Amino acid sequence: MILTIALAILLGITGYCGYHLSLFSRQQEQLKQDYSTINNITFGIFSIDQWREQIMEVVNGRVDNFKLSRQQKKAMQAQVEKQLHGLVAKTAAQINRPQKTFAGKLKKFAFNQVIDVRDIQAQVPSFARTIITKVNSPASTKRLKNIATSKLGQLERQTYDSTGEAQVVLAKAMYAKYQVNSTTQLNTKLTHQLEDIRKVNYYYAYIMLGCVLFVTLLWWLLRRKAHLQTTMFILSLLIALVLLVVGVTSSIIEVDARIGSMSFMLLGEKLGFENQVLFYQNKSLLEIIQVLVSQPKPDAVLVGVLLFLFVIVLPVLILIASGLHVLGNERIAENKVIRYLAFESGKWNMADVMVVGIAMTYIGLNGILKSQLGGLNIHNDMLTTVTTNNSSLQPGFLVFVAYVIYEIVLSKMLKQITNKA
């Protein structure tokens, strides 16, 4: 009686943790999906609007803070003097060229008698200083800034892409959903929630693994108590069923590739982007099967159907058949279908193969992502980019692995019960 109560409590704890793990797993997937959407590279590095806003902010700041330095004034004065000297010389040469008409000769004579070109050339520096002073006056500077600002505003209005409006609509919806006022606040809130959920999910997964380990240890200690084996086996089957359900409905693998930061210098100002999501996917085993079945290609559909049959349906049938064989009367227990499912169908069970497949897929994807993202890491005087690969196996994978191992323990328990019977 005490053993039954203890196992029932462990079953209840496993079921409670499994339910919340599956629930929080879906919540985590939704939060991560929202995070990857609002920070998608389409709305960042690939958005003309984002580039325009950052560049215009720098340029407008330069215009607003425009002021000629002493060195710039000297350089500008030298250029103005050069232009004025050239203008005076060109004008004098134009008038002093040979004239054929009486009016032209009269104009040339009057010019040479009244105007001394050398005197005008000597006054060029004072003219240049007057021009520079006038240009650098507050009124002229303000007028030049207004002209530059209006032209920049016109260019800004003419430069846009189709992502701008979509990003505004998306941002408003996200702000309302999470009750924030900016993308920075949204990212902070999502990051904190995701970190909390990640810790809770692993907490629930470890509790489930602890319950399974405790039941396995208890069976090993009581393996010689024949009268307790049936009770332990039935409750163990229910625990295994919980592990299987949670393992196929919770996230098992997450692929997350980002450009952590990209920065460069423009007019002495630092421009850049952060947390640009290149690719994100988070799938449970059941979702992977659904994706395969929904594909238009027959081979993908076939793979999805086979996975569903041999990774989900068959293990459930094996658990049911094992329970019927132990609890049922002789006619049910000795039924050919029941005996086949309980003792001989394990060779068709692909759950263990699926574990290896998921692990190999993760290793392969992780290697490819590291290789590809490594090529995007740039560090030089002009540009700096840092990529991050946050891909990982999820708690659902641990639970599914626990089911596969526990299934082996159950087969040993069933053989022991059958042999003693």
Automatic annotation (TrEMBL):
Q: Tell me if Oxidoreductase is a UniProt keyword of this record.
A: no
Per the record's keyword annotation, is Transmembrane included, yes or no?
A: yes
- The protein's superkingdom reads Bacteria
Which keywords does this chain's UniProt record carry? Membrane, Transmembrane, Transmembrane helix
Q: By its UniProt entry, which Pfam families does this protein fall under?
A: PqiA
Q: Where are the transmembrane segments?
A: 203-222, 234-253, 300-327, 348-369, 392-410
Q: What is this protein called?
A: Paraquat-inducible protein A
Source species: Mucilaginibacter robiniae
